Amino acid sequence: MRSPRVLSGGAELAVARFGSGAPLLWAHPLVFSKAYVPLALGERFDVAALDQRGHGESEGGEIEPLAMAEDLGAVLDSLGRPRSSLGGTSLGAATALLFALRHPERVERLVLDLPGFGPGSFRPPAKTEAMAAAFERADFDAAARVIVDGLSGPRAAAWEAALRADWAHYDPARLGPKLARALRGTSTWRILERWPDGLKALRVPTTILAVKGDPTHPWELAETMARTIPGARLLPRVPSLDPARIAAQWAEALA
């Protein structure tokens, strides 16, 4: 998998583009990459999916929230898009939200899928370090075991399959240290200093997708966001990792 590169603030970002329709910029979750993008989105949208810093084919740059948010603007600039719908999952939701807060004039609609990195979000430091250490030595089997530890059997199997399908696109020796850096670099992130009042400034049509019972992406955090962002709506996320079902829900959210 090779993709065009975009330079942004010391980072070199890889971007994949596919589909036709209204423009959509998509940002992946932590330890995934642009390869995780639901390809069925291309049936409705002209999709650009980037590798965020520390992931996929990206190279360099600080793992810092505002810098990574500005990366989205650099991608839009490279595509000649003054305005686009925008969305992301988990880490991608965080960077998409920060970009929309800073540049609302460039965002047509916003999807925040499994938002985290806020009060009540919890990523155990010991688990984070265990994942990072496994990635650093390119032991993806150990990393997968740590990631799915504590999940039910079927859900653990589904998550591990999704992770391995994404990682299969890359050289483990090159990808592992990047993911270790991304995990450590985001371990103390919080999306806003003024929580939740800073969300009141967002003037973009926003849909939030969340599930109950996820400590990393708490439903309660999503509820607070939906109450605070003017006009935002909160929907239960499809209880599946099936890319087609996820794409259908995103298409509905962006309609």
Task: Spell out the blueprint of helices and strands.
Elements: E1 5-8, E2 11-18, E3 22-27, E4 45-50, H1 65-78, E5 84-89, H2 91-102, E6 107-113, H3 125-136, H4 140-148, H5 153-167, H6 172-186, E7 206-210, H7 219-228, E8 233-236, H8 243-253
Parallel strand pairs: 3-4, 3-5, 5-6, 6-7, 7-8
Antiparallel strand pairs: 1-2, 2-4
Number of strands: 8
Task: Name the helix and strand elements from N-terminus to C-terminus, one letter apiece.
Answer: EEEEHEHEHHHHEHEH
What Rg, in angstroms, do the CA atoms define?
17 Å
Number of domains: 1
Strand order of the largest sheet: 1-2-4-3-5-6-7-8
**3D shape:** globular
Largest sheet: 8 strands, mixed
Tally of DSSP helical segments = 8
Question: Which class do the helix and strand fractions yield?
Answer: alpha/beta
> Which architecture does the CATH hierarchy give at level 2?
3-Layer(aba) Sandwich
Level of helix content? 25-40%
Give the CATH topology: Rossmann fold
CATH homologous superfamily annotation: Alpha/Beta hydrolase fold, catalytic domain
Content of β-strand: 15-25%
Q: Class, according to the CATH hierarchy?
A: Alpha Beta
Could you name the ranges where pLDDT drops below 50 across 5 or more consecutive residues? none
Termini Cα gap: 30 Å
Q: Look at the structure and give the mean pLDDT.
A: 95
